[in-house]
Design goal:
The protein is of the alpha/beta class. 38% of the residues lie in helices and 31% in strands. Helix 2 packs parallel to helix 3 and helix 3 runs antiparallel to helix 9. The longest helix has 20 residues.
Length: 283
């Protein structure tokens, strides 16, 4: 399998290291432009310049299976066009939604394939928020994408409340999602916190999983034969996320199966995110 990496040389070299160990990868081509990648089977697009969707559409039309490594794009019309073009061309897409691709998250999804209850609390220190350069949407978008991907169903009801002061800046958000399946997801984001804290909790009838996202530890609760709740702990290495994401992408191509975060997931996110934005604009 020949793989192209399109992007700046310094980032491309880092990603090339994740490709070299795979025996199925016979050649890796690094180039700053898609037009120069040549005859490859798939490519990694490393771009955050605002043109990533145009470049992705070009790659899809050329027939390249593509892993877009950038913040999740949410332009509905372009995402929809790319999704249907990829379907028609039988091209696989993968997007770098790191909350889903993280080792802890992947393990949790294997333990509970479809949670009935998800609760997320993400507190960001206000100093870090101001220094980050990210807007408020950046923080709730990742958590919304995480919930939609894991529960993997249609949202039929949404409740939304925000923390806003005199100048209408949003510092906090509480979002409750009810799914057609009966599952619920509760998302709380606070960017005016004194200190950082980030937990994702999920459950079904068998397990309770509480992930400390900052430490990448998962506390696992289950009942013994006597009905008493006991806990165990799993720890994960977040630095492995990129390596494992490339591995998943290659395996999906080899087996011709959907990738872990694909065009369908992104399309559902863009539709739901658009509803959230409209609700926020009216609040």
């Amino acid at each position: 399998m020949k793989i192209g990496i399109i992007g700046s040389a310094d980032r491309a070299v880092a990603w090339e290291k994740h490709l070299r160990p795979h025996g199925s990868v016979s050649e890796v081509t690094i180039t700053p432009r898609l037009s120069e990648v040549g005859d490859v089977d798939a490519c990694l697009l490393l771009t955050e310049d605002g043109q990533q969707l145009d470049l992705l559409l070009e790659a899809v039309k050329t027939g390249y299976h593509t892993f877009l490594i950038s913040p999740l794009p949410t332009d509905i019309s372009k995402v929809e066009k790319i999704y249907y073009t990829a379907q028609e061309a039988n091209v696989l897409l993968q997007f770098s939604h790191w909350p889903t691709l993280a080792p802890a998250s992947k393990w949790m999804a294997q333990k509970i394939s479809k949670p009935s209850f998800v609760q997320i609390s993400r507190k960001v220190s206000h100093a870090k928020y101001r220094e980050s350069g990210h807007d408020f949407e950046y923080y709730w978008m990742d958590e919304l994408a995480f919930c939609l991907r894991w529960i993997n169903g249609s949202v039929h009801h949404m409740d939304l409340k925000t923390i806003e002061l005199n100048h209408n800046n949003i510092y906090g958000l509480h979002m409750l999602l009810r799914f057609e399946s009966g599952s619920t997801a509760n998302i709380y984001v606070n960017v005016a916190s004194a200190k950082a804290d980030h937990h994702r909790l999920a459950s079904n009838n068998h397990f309770l999983l509480d992930c400390n996202v900052l430490d990448q530890n998962v506390r696992v609760g289950e009942e013994n034969e006597s009905g008493h709740l006991f806990f165990s702990k799993q720890s994960f290495d977040a630095t492995k996320a990129a390596e494992l994401a490339v591995q998943d992408f290659i395996k999906a191509i080899q087996l011709n199966r959907p990738t872990i975060y694909n065009g369908h997931h992104l399309l559902e996110l863009t539709k739901t995110a658009d509803k959230v934005r409209k609700r926020l604009a009216r609040s």
